[in-house]
From TrEMBL, chains A, B, C, D:
Metabolic or biological pathway, per its Swiss-Prot or TrEMBL entry: Metabolic intermediate biosynthesis; chorismate biosynthesis; chorismate from D-erythrose 4-phosphate and phosphoenolpyruvate: step 7/7
InterPro entries, alphabetized: Chorismate_synth, Chorismate_synth_AroC_sf, Chorismate_synthase_CS
Highest taxon above the source species: Eukaryota
Species this chain originates from: Multifurca ochricompacta
Organism placement in taxonomy: Eukaryota, Fungi, Dikarya, Basidiomycota, Agaricomycotina
SUPFAM superfamilies: Chorismate synthase, AroC
Family note: Belongs to the chorismate synthase family.
The name this protein goes by in its record: Chorismate synthase
Database matches in Pfam families: Chorismate_synt (PF01264)
Self-association state and partner proteins as the record states: Homotetramer.
Cofactor note (record): Reduced FMN (FMNH(2)).
Amino acid sequence: MSTFGTLFRVTTYGESHCASVGAIIDGCPPGLELSAQDVQTQLSRRRPGQSNLTTPRDEKDLVHLQSGVEHGVTLGTPIGLLVKNEDQRPKDYSETDLYPRPSHADYTYLQKYGIKASSGGGRSSARETIGRVAAGAIAEKYLKQAHGIEIIAFVSSVGKVHLFSSVSPARTDADEDNDEIEDALSPEFRALLVTVTREEVDKFPTRCPHLETSERMTKRIIRAKEAKDSIGGTVTCVLRNVPAGLGEPVFDKFEAKLAHAMLSIPATKAFEIGSGFRGTEVPGSKHNDAFVRWENGNLGTTTNWSGGVQGGITNGEDIYFRIGFKSPATISRAQETAQYNGTPGTLAARGRHDPCVVPRAVPIVEAMAALVVMDELLIQNARRTAVSLLPPITTLPPTMTLPIRK
Amino acid sequence: MSTFGTLFRVTTYGESHCASVGAIIDGCPPGLELSAQDVQTQLSRRRPGQSNLTTPRDEKDLVHLQSGVEHGVTLGTPIGLLVKNEDQRPKDYSETDLYPRPSHADYTYLQKYGIKASSGGGRSSARETIGRVAAGAIAEKYLKQAHGIEIIAFVSSVGKVHLFSSVSPARTDADEDNDEIEDALSPEFRALLVTVTREEVDKFPTRCPHLETSERMTKRIIRAKEAKDSIGGTVTCVLRNVPAGLGEPVFDKFEAKLAHAMLSIPATKAFEIGSGFRGTEVPGSKHNDAFVRWENGNLGTTTNWSGGVQGGITNGEDIYFRIGFKSPATISRAQETAQYNGTPGTLAARGRHDPCVVPRAVPIVEAMAALVVMDELLIQNARRTAVSLLPPITTLPPTMTLPIRK
Amino acid sequence: MSTFGTLFRVTTYGESHCASVGAIIDGCPPGLELSAQDVQTQLSRRRPGQSNLTTPRDEKDLVHLQSGVEHGVTLGTPIGLLVKNEDQRPKDYSETDLYPRPSHADYTYLQKYGIKASSGGGRSSARETIGRVAAGAIAEKYLKQAHGIEIIAFVSSVGKVHLFSSVSPARTDADEDNDEIEDALSPEFRALLVTVTREEVDKFPTRCPHLETSERMTKRIIRAKEAKDSIGGTVTCVLRNVPAGLGEPVFDKFEAKLAHAMLSIPATKAFEIGSGFRGTEVPGSKHNDAFVRWENGNLGTTTNWSGGVQGGITNGEDIYFRIGFKSPATISRAQETAQYNGTPGTLAARGRHDPCVVPRAVPIVEAMAALVVMDELLIQNARRTAVSLLPPITTLPPTMTLPIRK
Amino acid sequence: MSTFGTLFRVTTYGESHCASVGAIIDGCPPGLELSAQDVQTQLSRRRPGQSNLTTPRDEKDLVHLQSGVEHGVTLGTPIGLLVKNEDQRPKDYSETDLYPRPSHADYTYLQKYGIKASSGGGRSSARETIGRVAAGAIAEKYLKQAHGIEIIAFVSSVGKVHLFSSVSPARTDADEDNDEIEDALSPEFRALLVTVTREEVDKFPTRCPHLETSERMTKRIIRAKEAKDSIGGTVTCVLRNVPAGLGEPVFDKFEAKLAHAMLSIPATKAFEIGSGFRGTEVPGSKHNDAFVRWENGNLGTTTNWSGGVQGGITNGEDIYFRIGFKSPATISRAQETAQYNGTPGTLAARGRHDPCVVPRAVPIVEAMAALVVMDELLIQNARRTAVSLLPPITTLPPTMTLPIRK
């Protein structure tokens, strides 16, 4: 369905070529200062037409707040908002009347609904993500103000160009007895997670905050564009200052909701948190994050292979994860395929497409992450406040209750 | 929370050392033949003590059905079931009274609840998965009977031992201009997805259905066990004969619910569907699954990089995905870490632990997959039946409605 | 929260004096012919300013469909819609800056949110019901087309003026041994349930489809209006042709969801289905609905004290229920009360108010009923279709399975 | 489905004649002292065989806690519990193999599921309510400890015997110009709401805390029993010390969730809060609850016609409501009706039945009320805590934010 979240909840509507796309954000805490500009900033980072690396579809994506805010402050009631669809050229898609685009949603929407929008991606269009980004921007504003939480995503690969790519040539079967963890979790990468800022990320059209890599990525995207082709990539995201204790065992572990959120973004195919797939290759003795006492008295870890989550619950360390986006399905290059009726033929899609979605996906990833943190935070508020109202327990063995993190 | 699903729903209870663990399965279609044995089969594949590769904790894990079934047929009412906890040795865990186990849930549960079970993993114990496996077995029985759906998971890596591991030594930065997809998606791997059976998988204690690889995996696990250490791995799962049209845009895409389900399994850190992370590296022209007409008139694809899902909706092809399990956190080997109170020290956990969880994770992965398919199928039933009762639409452009898959 | 429903789901936004009020309707079956006019008809029945019995606030309440419909046919995707707030006079409410209106939501919103809209009812305004009515109109269109379901509400009392009011003077303690059921369930009332139409209802400004009673009701409302006072009333609603088998035991019984829906309408305080409170007074032998065989072979009942629902599940008979609306809290007449700060004083509210809400509540009740039926229908579709795909059961005692209603 | 609640959630299983009935209670705050006896007390008030006014089925209904509690303290994890079905006599119900009991769920379950339990009420049996009562007892323990909340239900009518029944003989059409509110809301009734205790209620086998009325009720029930018939009644419930601010506009108003909860109890047909249906008959000027300042500085009301809820949100006053239970459908007296196959005939049910359910319904009503309050309280905790972490707002007009109730 088109709703995400339990206590902080976004519901979206809109297809690629209808009157507007929009969202209702329900459960926003009252008393939060909020302006349209707070939302617009992230929408503008998402909008098409930002550089020669993205689709030429030109949408200003101006947000119109409808409700839930008065005198620049949230009322606690649902925030309705919408963005008009303006630069529509439905005719552009006429080839796809006959052909389902390979690896696109054209065919599956028909299988699901028995009907599909007459042009463009319809509901599967990336314009659907506008509502998410708007909702995420509101969540993020709260998280920053109330908890100092920072959410920063960046492009970590385009095609085979990897940030801090040190994919070892040695990574073969011969390595079976090598117990070390490699690659993406290099010291440089770990340092970046601690320091990267949104401003730094936006200095690069690729949104990869590393000059040399970004240039190679740009080259890779241009190569795809010139070949009327497309290319995939990955986005990495880090969440800083998220309180310990978030995430609901059993089925709604923090990383489970995060994975759900991320794989609901169009074109995603993969998710990993912390050391991820690479971490499966090393023994526990190397992979476990030993505890240390920080200066403020809290326990913490220095290695953080866990990516800030243990047993489905945040531990107060930085949360970082990576999402894989496939290469966009819509390409102008001719493809041998079949029509809806089965007739074989050649499709060369017109329309305006992104050769690579990852630079524009960055604010979408941030938004979905903000929605997950916000929802889990509210749920944990409910419990923590409930506990605080009980009389202290005096009958338990001392090892069953221990001090909560400062 | 402890409930998963919308129309087919499982709710579980139980800690590692309480009276029993159990589940309520709600929404099971009435009229399904069901015996305790149907459930027991998968529980026995999950239970500890199956081989020298798993924990020596010896639980028979006999399931007791409480309700929802009469004369061997489901009534449509909730199915209550439980498995008693028998081989409990709470004393074994006394070291962990002082030390939170590194990378385990001990510390985060305390941060969340302010209290933790006095011994063992409590709710974070793998015994929690019994309810999932039982629920999945029931879903699976329905899916097999009503749709011929097959769900088969197997171990695809242990540490650095990969099934069909052909991790190319060429995979370095120099490859940036190589547009080919590599590794796990080899022809051998693709062939295995089509043919593998649960019987074949169970011939191997590792549950890796390839003799030579399985032997190397066994060796790797034994090496971990002898070192009082642990090792991670991956499980791959294939779903065959899943109808087209399942999955709910926008937020409940099929792969999003699948990722949610898989990352709710203890010790998971990564998920990918179809070509996954590897698929992000190749251009759309290579990655798109061109359509072909099958003999029955349906459209299909031969390459299936999409893994059976496009735009969040199943397309009728095989669905396959891979999950990364970290190396178990509990190891007997001494670890330098800190006590709950911050005092540095050395922890050498006693207790009975799996050196590697992936062989026992196989039925858990199958169960969670069955739960997702079952739930999405019921939801799509609701819509498809609703549409079938409407009068035919005659006013639409012919390209907006097209024949549904046979 | 602002979302209602499981598979057919409406989410609303909007306060009394913001830019617009609107809704997202999710889960509408694709392939339904739908125009703005289908929605407008019910909105216009709800809108203020229809007669001298309602608030003089004059809103055209024109609906703008944003998405989910193309070429006049639903796509199965969310339908976004909005109605602009036009005739706003926020200044009218300035007295209520100091005084919480007695029995209004002013005080409780502040207790809940710590902030309230600067004027009018904010989110508690009846304008919030626009989204419900729009969503209900869409559901109703489907229900009519696919199942021939009819939903008709009418005003059954205003103050002490009751339709078919034959409140027996004998109804005193002396009646304890009288086992008969009385009053509202008279033969005339039962006949009305079978025949009443929306057209008939709309012939009367009170929406009470009985000339003499309607005139007495009009008189009663005018009396309240002239006294700068207000008056309550009841609305009765009948649903015809609802299939048997809807409603989900245990917690989501049909009448439980219906009661939930009805008591979510502003100003409601009471709900009863079938014989309701009156039915509690007679013995089972008088109250039970004996079965008869209809000509089509189905079982049915002639008495229908149950109101079409037994054990929480519809039985195919007409469903009828009654909702009590209190007299509107906002009155222009002076009231002795206290300011927010506790200072006693006199409040005489300005602003434009309905002296009696029940005539305008009629389409709201119909809408909420349609939402409940639609949602339960989709949920039952899911199950019924699932069962139909199973092989027939041959092992059950014959008394456990019996033919389904035609 | 069989789950109720959002953050405090109960899921139940069990039919009348299966192995056990049980529940999983999820979301209980950790750190609550809880013993089986806390649950048993309410179960024993619900159990059959308590007096000659109830069914002779004799069940001890001993509860077995399975999980979620250690050393007498809740862990925050799900609490599994079960009660064995012991005194089963399935044969007793053989007549109902042929006949659907009039006004019972026999017929509708078949329409819904196509199959029904072979004997007794199956899932529609009152034994299903055991899980609710157990869950409610746990919620109640928390509510008492953390907020001093008291929940007391009592029988307010049996048949035409009403507590404080002063149904005026004058209540006829001639009263249209009488603006007074009458009957159930008499001063005596209002006084009872403030003072009644559970101990007082339990002094009477009818659970009507008024000697003379209780004796008349007993007489009425005995009359029904001797006639092999049954009789209905009403239960009134009061909640004291519920904080202001609970309830979620729009669709989840406090009274909407309460009505949902109450009408999910078997045999219920009606619900009203505060002045209810009677309150619809008087003008706003008489019905509005004027504000007064209490000694502690809070605003409150003396009249409380609203029943403690305004605009769907609690206002801190006592919450009181009334539920109508129909006369039990199962009677031993012969009834002319039809068989499942349509053949007319006479049914005289055997089995053990309550002639009147309201005395045993009292703890069920209390339990469902506790579940609603608990859930709404947790949800409001989430918001209130979120707001408390924001910086103070200085830019709002002073009339938009006002002090929260002490």
